[in-house]
Backbone:
């Protein structure tokens, strides 16, 4: 029979190796040091180039707030061409991106008369921070941005929230934070239901699931949240805000079926899903932008109880 001392030593060595590997994953996916690489959308791509040109020329203001932990968060505010507008769209990018990635979406809402807020999520773009929480603390930051908009640009403004991928999950997780009644509509493009399955699919190795407890231990130890406990699907059930989903059926990272289930479980009386048959993760807009814009415009007219005049 093996000496108990050796058994303890072996367990200690295995645990040490396990935590080292968990830390390596943590340092790459959570405490990544900040994504400052200019975003994930190519500005020269013919599909995106016109919107980047619009963004570079449109009147805008650099704005900032401080997150729950004092982290300085930055973004761009774009006023409406209609000085009487009381509509504001807050648009959130995805993991490893930055606010300018969403210029093409911002232009669409701007043409409809919305004021625009394009924040950089913590640890992305111009915002400070070295870690991401896959929507957990970002949802707290979103609530602070909402209050900033109401305090600075109009306390009676009606707000639309639009997010893609992690930005979409952030929008849905914000349901947990008692948002102001000014939030009238949510548009979520390619959200995930739970973080754990996305993590496994992203690293493309089923064995990665064994490191989730270690990863969650590190996030809890250093950042006071558990990665395994982030449950977007559960948050969806907490809000009756009109919510509209966009998702591609070829999305392997965040399966379409899960988003359909989230839509069906939402207590909102106004909800729907726009399905793009051939779209992979977060690429629905690139394939069917005109149809999606038309779909959203009709919904906006209904939700905001007005007739929108697009910019000429």
Residues:
């Amino acid at each position: 029979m093996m000496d108990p001392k050796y058994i303890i030593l072996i367990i200690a060595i295995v645990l040490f190796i396990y935590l080292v590997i968990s830390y390596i994953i943590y340092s790459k996916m959570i405490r990544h040091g900040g994504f400052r690489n200019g975003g994930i959308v190519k500005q020269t791509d013919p599909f995106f180039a016109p919107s980047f040109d619009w963004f570079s020329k449109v009147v805008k203001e650099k704005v900032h707030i401080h997150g729950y932990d004092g982290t300085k968060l930055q973004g761009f505010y774009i006023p409406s061409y209609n000085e009487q507008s009381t509509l504001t769209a807050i648009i959130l990018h995805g993991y490893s991106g930055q606010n300018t990635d969403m210029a093409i979406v911002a232009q669409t809402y701007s043409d409809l008369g919305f004021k625009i807020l394009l924040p950089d999520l913590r640890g992305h773009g111009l915002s400070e921070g070295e870690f991401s929480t896959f929507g957990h603390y970002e949802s707290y930051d979103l609530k602070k941005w909402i209050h900033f908009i109401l305090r600075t640009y109009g306390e009676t403004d009606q707000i639309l929230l639009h997010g893609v991928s992690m930005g979409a999950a952030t929008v849905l997780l914000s349901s947990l934070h008692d948002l102001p009644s000014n939030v009238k509509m949510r548009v979520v493009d390619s959200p995930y239901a739970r973080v754990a399955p996305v993590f496994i699919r992203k690293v493309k190795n089923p064995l990665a699931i064994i490191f989730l407890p270690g990863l969650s231990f590190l996030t809890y130890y250093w950042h006071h949240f558990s990665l395994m406990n982030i449950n977007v699907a559960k948050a969806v059930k907490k809000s009756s805000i009109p919510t509209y989903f966009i998702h591609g059926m070829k999305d392997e990272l965040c399966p379409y079926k899960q988003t359909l289930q989230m839509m069906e479980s939402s207590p909102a009386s106004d909800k729907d899903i726009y399905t793009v048959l051939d779209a992979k993760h977060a690429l629905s807009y690139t394939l069917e932008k005109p149809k999606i814009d038309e779909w959203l415009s009709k919904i906006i007219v209904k939700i905001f109880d007005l007739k929108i005049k697009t910019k000429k």
